[in-house]
Amino acid sequence: MSVEVSRERIPLAAAYKAAGQRAVLRINNGVERQCPAATPPFPEEINNEPLFKVRGDLFAQEIKAVREPISVKAELTVLVTRKEAPEVWALGPDDVVEVGPFAGTGLDLRGSPLMAIYACPTVVIFVEGRGIATCRALLESSADVANLNLRFRRDVRVYYKVPNSASVAFKEEFEAWEALGPVRVFTTSSSFQDAFDDDDTLTYDPETTGAIILVGGDAEAEKEAREVCKDGDISRILADSVEQPPVVHLAPNPFEHLLTGKPRKPMRRKSREQREAEAAAVAADAAAAAQQEAQAAAAAAQGSDDDEEEHVNGNGNGNGNGNGHYSPAKSPSAAAAKR
């Protein structure tokens, strides 16, 4: 499907930025469906003109005038099954498709050691189920977004586990993937361990090898892939079950104060004296609160002792010594003070 990707129309917080994110679709005003995006993140170069316009700059011999927002369209491919999203599966040319903000933050590739091409020249990828969509997006990502830089890798192996040969997705694109770099795709219907062991052409150093697990949230499949990595002494692992930390966006439009005419409050850093004064105030409040708690506890203890003494004087029995008072060794207040 063709979707709007102009940065002038779609804010960065709602855009498709990393492989592993999910497209939120609604067909004919129906139920929202989250479908894994199989298209690589849209390259930044297609937004050069909208971004230049958002800056507010002018070209040579251009005068200030109201211009219509620039529209940029791009193709989006999602992976769906008939059981999970029947209305998306049966999508037709006359259906109305609404695309909401992309869900999730995607693979934490930037925070992974696999991003370093010389530290991990060899990469093995374990794929099952919906993870093939993320695998396709990752392999086909352009150079201006987070990607694997396939041309600079020594070896990249994809072990794709499927129930049967009829369940292989994107099979017609395997040759194109292998043409992107030193990539080889293997399909198996048994297990990741068998596929890894049967690959006699793979020679690797565990210290410079990384693994990527793309199983679409299947805990059993991820456990199986991690067992293979453990047997192969591969410790650098990136899984789609752990997404990257969310990005904090300072403002949806950094030029809002220019468009609205409202002055923007400058951010000022507090001086050392201000910080020390605030810390002293916090410490004083904590000390006052502790003192109040101690006074309340002392008052409660004094009230308890007075009640016990009044009770002893009133019954005239004491502990059998005839004077109507407890002996100091056995009085409740003395025992409490000893404890």
Automatic annotation (TrEMBL):
Query: Which residue ranges are recorded for the region named Disordered?
Result: 253-339
The record's annotation in PANTHER family points to: FAD-BINDING FR-TYPE DOMAIN-CONTAINING PROTEIN (PTHR47215:SF3), PTHR47215
Q: What is this protein called?
A: Uncharacterized protein
The biased composition feature labelled Low complexity covers 279-303, 327-339
Organism encoding this protein = Chlamydomonas incerta
- Compositionally biased intervals (Basic residues): 262-272
Q: Which domain of life is it from?
A: Eukaryota
Which InterPro entries does this entry report, sorted A to Z? FNR_nucleotide-bd
